[in-house]
Amino acid sequence: MNLRPLLFCLALLSAAAGCAEAQEASPPQGAAPVTAIRAGRLIDGSGGPVVENAVIIVRGERIESVGPAAGAVIPGGARVVDLSRHTVLPGLIDGHAHPYENLNWGVPDAIRMGYIAQGMRISLLSGTTTYYVLGEIHNMDIVARGLVEQGRLAGPRIYPSGHWILTSRGPWGEVFDETYDGADAIRAKIREQHQAGAHHTKLMLEDGAGSGNNFTREELRAAVEQSHALGMKVTAHAYGDAVRVAMEAGVDAVTHGNNLTPETIDLLKRRRSGIVVTHTIDFQPYYPERWRVAGQTTNAKEWLQGWRDVLARARREPSVERAFRARARELTALKAAGVIVAAGTDNGPGLMQIELEYLVDSGFTPLEAITAGTGATARLLGIDQEVGTIQRGRFADIIAVSGRPDQDIKALDQLSFLMAGGRDLSGLSWK
Ligand SMILES: [Zn+2]
User: Fold this and answer.
1) What is the pLDDT of residues 238-293, one digit of tens each?
2) What is each CA distance from 275 to 81, 198, 254, 256, 377, in whole angstroms?
3) Ligand 1 centroid to residue 346 C-alpha, Å
4) What pTM value is reported for the model?
5) Ligand 1 centroid – CA 75 distance (Å)
6) Ligand 1 centroid – CA 345 distance (Å)
7) Are residues 347 and 97 in contact, defined by beta-carbon separation less than 8 angstroms?
8) How is domain 32-90+394-431 classified at the CATH fold level?
9) Domain at 92-387, CATH from 3.20.20.140, 3.10.20.600, 2.40.40.20, 3.40.50.1820
């Protein structure tokens, strides 16, 4: 209930006639607030060129219109945000997120939620407004989504997967707390997760160390069929030949996807699929540095610079740099073939900018990298009707930076505006 007209009337005890007027001037109760954003430069996430001088109208949690500033009609009562000296773009999507960014299963869920809250806040304040989760223990992603939606936790919009789907064969059985063998067990687990609120399915198809596919053909078919029957897409963790196996089984997208052959790249292209590329996970041995950096930072710029320093040190090791260059050549081949290249951190809170910097380092233009971190990820993962681009009907998940990230990708660390679901969160503090 909006108390303002009532209070206004009480203040005008001797002028009862004015009350009706004051109430009429207020927006109707429950009306969605309207914001008009003046964008000096707009990158809409679709891959199109930068548009100069645009106006975005946000009504409630969604974008109502986007168009040239000349001739734009700003609705009466709209709050105007002047970003005419800034570059405006969609909030970044982490296409491979794990809210609990740790494989230490010995931690109680209550403490785990503390970690999740810290990581999600860092991500949001670094411009990541969507987490597409690819595996989470104890459905903590579904719990966290609810807390974000209730406004109790500051964090990205979450598309949860619930627990990873994996078999006891292969090395993961020792790492993860639950495994599912046989088509029936896999179908039952996917139905259970759907019931609990999972949005899609994450398969741990293989281990990345050449042990091959850990699923029988029947199990894989069951996972894909059951997910699709429930309207859930399937993303598989896969490298090398397991990417081919995933594509042939009807899996919708692959994450990691290193060690590809030309035949596999062709298969990805024919299936109009793609890969959620994950660079920073390759630097996992340096992760203990993460929370040392976090403890010393007070904003996204410092956080990202701290990480650039850690990764630059790592890349002084010749074998690390060689692996990076080999990966860069693969990404160039994927791009040339027209395979969708999406991006994710695989558990690096607030590190999407680093992922995009690494895509540029791998031969992408800054604009192509930004598309990979927004519209392309949304398209590959089937959430493009809701997020990833600045267009009519999408959630108003919008960021701005003071520089020109389409010319220098590092300018993405100069965040000057943050809106999620139509709420201006620019005033949110790092700690
Ligand atoms: Zn992962």
Assistant:
1) 999 999 999 999 999 999 999 999 999 999 999 999 999 999 888 877 777 777 77
2) 36, 21, 5, 7, 9
3) 4
4) 0.91
5) 44
6) 8
7) yes
8) Urease, subunit C; domain 1 (2.30.40)
9) 3.20.20.140
